[in-house]
Structures are given as C-alpha cells and as structure tokens.
Amino acid sequence: MGCDSQQTDAQVDVIISGCGPVGALTGNLLGLLGVRTLLLERDVAPHGEPRAFSCDDEGLRIYQSTGLLDLLQSNMKQSNFAEYVGGSGKRFAELHIGDVDFGFGHSPLWFFHQPLLEGSLRDGLNRFEHVELRKGVSVEAVSQDATGVTVRYRDSRTGEQRTVRSRFLLACDGARSGVRKAMGIPMSGRAYGEPWLAVSGTVMEGEVPELCRFVCDPKRPSFVATGAVNQIRWEFMLMPGETREQLENRDTIHQLIAPYVDPQRVRIERAQVYTFHCLNAARWRDGNVFLLGDAAHTMPPFMGQGLVSGMRDAANLAWKLQRVLNGQSPDSLLDTYEQERRPHVEAVQKLCIRVGHLFLARNSWVASARDALMRTIQRIPRVRKFIERFEFKEAPSHAEGFYFADKGEYFIQPRVQLESGEEVLLDDTLGNDFTVLCRWNAPSAELEAARELAASLGGRMLTFRPPSEAARDAAEDAAPAVVDVTGKLTDWFSQHAADVVVLRPDRFVFGAVQARRLPELREALGV
C-alpha cells in the first residue's frame, strides 16, 4: 500500500515498526552503531504481560553487546536443572545445565520477566540522541523506491497522520506483522491444532518452589518452571472436549496449578489459551524492507527459541545496515541476512518439532514405551551426556554467507585478563565493529598488516598471550593486549591452524588464516 508525502518528518536512517523485545534490542544495537533510528510502537503503555519467558547463552551474549547485560541479568533467574517426567510422575530424562559451557561466556538457560526486560531495553534507547521511540502510533501505509521507504503512521491519541522517510524499514511487529502484510509477503508452514493454556503468576508469600519440568503425560502434557522475580509459568494442553472458557476459568486454573503451589499464594497475571505455529515468511527482504523475529518466522515453544531467534536476527542485520549506510559495504551485503539466518532458523524449527513429538505423545502405550526407551539408552554414558549436557541444542553456525571460508562459526568467549589485572569476558574488550585478533608473539610484519586491516575495517586490533609469557614493553607494540588466562584462545588458534582471526561485529568468524593468507582475507573483505 502506498502513502503520500504530506507532513513528512525529517528523514532517518532506519525505521523500526514495533518496540517489543526484538524491536527494542535492534534499536539499541543501531544506537550503539550511530545509526539514526525511529521506533514506532502501537501501544502507549507497556503491555505488562509476561509472554516470552526464557533466554539462552547466545541471547545473553547479544544482550552483553548492548552494554545492558548487568541490568538485564539482575532481573533474570538461572536454571540449573530441568527434568522430563512421564504419566507416572517418574523422571525419564534430565538436564544438568548450571555449569554447561558451550564456549560463549554464559550458561544456556535463563528465565526473565518480559515487562522488566522490555522496560530496561526501552530505557536503554535513552542513551542515544539519534534514537527516538514514538508510542501510541500505528503504521498505516508503506511505499518504497530505489532510495528508501516512506511510512505513513497515525497517532492513536490525536488521530493525526504523519509520514516519515528512511533508507530502511525493519518489521519487528510480531507474527501478525502489519508491515509484512503491507508488502504482500505470505507465510507458510504448519499451524498446530492443539490449543494450550499459558498461565503466568507471581508467588506472593512463602517459599517459591524450584521447578523446570516437562510433564509428558498423555492425559495432559504440561510444562512448569520457576522464573525470575518469584514468577512461575505453566503451560497446559487442552484435552478433547475442553473449551477456552473452561480452561481460562479461575477455578480450573487453581485446580491445574495446585499440584505445584498453593493457588492462594499466587497472583495470576496472565491466563490465555493459544495455539502455536511453525511458519516462515516467503522472503525476509523486500527491497529496503526487512522482517525480523516473529514477523519472519515462528516456532513451537519446546526449546524456548522463539525470542532468541529474533535476537539473532537483530545481531546479524544491525551491523550490516550500518556498513551499507556508511558506504563501507555494498547493498548486496544485506542479502546475506536471510542467506545466513534462514537455514539456522529452519534447523531450530525442526529440532523444536522433534522435541515436541517426544513431549506430546498422546497414546499411553507409546508414552510408556518412550519412557522405557529413554531410560534404557541413557545407560550408554555418551548418550546420557548428550542429553544431560544439552548437546542436542542446535549450534550457532551458518552454512554460507559473508565469510572467507565456506562456513560461519560463532567465536568463543572465554575470560581474559586486562593489563590492569582485571578479568573480563572477551567481548567486553572488542567494541562494536570488526576485530582483528592475533597472537602476541606474531612477527612484526604480520602485526603491522593486521593493524592496517583493522584500521581499514573501522575496527580494532587485539593481541593475546598466555599467562606464562611476559608482557612486552608497550613501546614495542601499541596494540591492546589481553592475557589468555583459560588457554582457550590458544587452543582455538591451534585447532584452526590460524595466526590471525577476523571477527564480525556479531562475533561470527569471518576468517581464520595463517599470516601468509592475510592478503586473500583482505580482498574477501573488500577493503
């Protein structure tokens, strides 16, 4: 649908439609990159409902890149243990994840309270004079040409219509995305027919039970977990013949949650019947318009990957937009957003479906056989470790895209020691642009070439050394340096036979090469 050009606001670089968690995160990432950004949010006040609930280690790493992790994590709860139980109540599988480290600096399962998280992300936007959030406005029309996008929106409080012009428009407006519909982009996939009741409540007094349980009972599959700030989340499948009205009834809710906590101690904040979908948009880019998060893809909830997948979208796209806007990269770089992200999303969707099949067995005989099989195969130590250590989680990688090699690998994030003696996570030393990472003892010519490459990328160069190697005089090498106190950087470089690694702003490895191949790496980067 088109829009006129009357009452056009001053142009910005990027418009974001929707300021939920993905939109607010994207706004923060663009703000850190200096991109002039306008966020348009339909609701005047925060919705206040705890919809999204969980986050993984990749999500925390992305939050870390915004500079807001400490604030966000102060209102999160780490989960150390999860269990799967059958209809008899007997456990047939368990996850021990409190100390699991996939190498990215954080443990893999955290729970949060969405209103608090969303509020903190929105407050983070106030750090940037070049980022603005307008609330109570809804997008009514979108038109674009070769140079940008024009958006017409309406203020729900005054009825006033305005238009604003930008180079790019990002749809972060959810599964019912108005922007996606305006662009005529269809969604395809599967809608699951089984309705579920989602209940969120806060324990008002007394002890809060520690729970993270998948109840794989054919009589009523369900899920319960203790979240942040004394929250508990329940999910109950509706059984044949049950209605939305029956399940959303206060007395029914109390009966369902009573096995876990005294209902009189719980303030119910949300109780809503829903059905879940596994869908993908036909395309995630239409000219200068991009779809992110639920606007681009939805998935079953069994791995808690819905919101995190949208966060990965934001981390992948934000820096690419900045480089194109600044003339550092061609527009074709933006095509790698969907090229990189879609295959990973589809792999995660398939995993969610497989876990769902395990979870949702409705035949009692099949469920009993599943329970027995799961207990039997876990007598094999390697299988037991695969399950208990959450190794079935889809690894963050890209089969193709903006990379020197054939595959994009997510770089590790060990703790490192600064020259002051303080220990920090590696990303805290990298900044928000490209990083060229080298061994401390590399030849001077190699270090100089790496320094020049970092400068041409607009990023920084960083060297590392093992604790056993003494620091060189600062006059010998002006590059920032860290100490590899865990030895993990040294091991990674050795395993990959690399002298130099170029990290993208989203912490994926663009290329890891020996020194003699630096010219090839530079040519592939186009600098």
Quick overview of this protein structure:
This protein is α+β, with helices and mostly antiparallel strands. Helices cover 29% and strands 28% of the residues.
Topology:
Elements: E1 12-17, H1 21-32, E2 37-41, E3 54-55, H2 57-66, H3 69-73, E4 76-78, E5 81-85, E6 91-96, E7 110-112, H4 114-124, E8 131-135, E9 137-145, E10 148-155, E11 161-171, H5 178-182, E12 187-191, E13 196-203, E14 212-215, E15 222-226, E16 231-237, H6 244-247, H7 250-257, E17 266-274, E18 277-281, E19 285-286, E20 289-291, E21 297-298, H8 306-325, H9 336-359, H10 364-377, H11 381-388, E22 397-398, E23 408-410, E24 415-417, E25 423-425, E26 435-439, H12 444-457, E27 460-465, E28 481-483, H13 488-495, E29 500-503, E30 508-513, H14 518-525
Parallel strand pairs: 1-2, 1-11, 2-8, 5-14, 11-20, 26-27, 27-28
Antiparallel strand pairs: 3-7, 4-7, 5-6, 9-10, 10-11, 12-18, 13-16, 13-17, 14-15, 15-16, 18-21, 19-20, 22-23, 23-30, 24-25, 26-29, 29-30
How would you characterize the overall build of this protein?
It is a single chain. By secondary structure, this protein is α+β, with helices and mostly antiparallel strands. It has 14 helices and 30 strands. 29% of the residues lie in helices and 28% in strands. The relative contact order is 0.12.
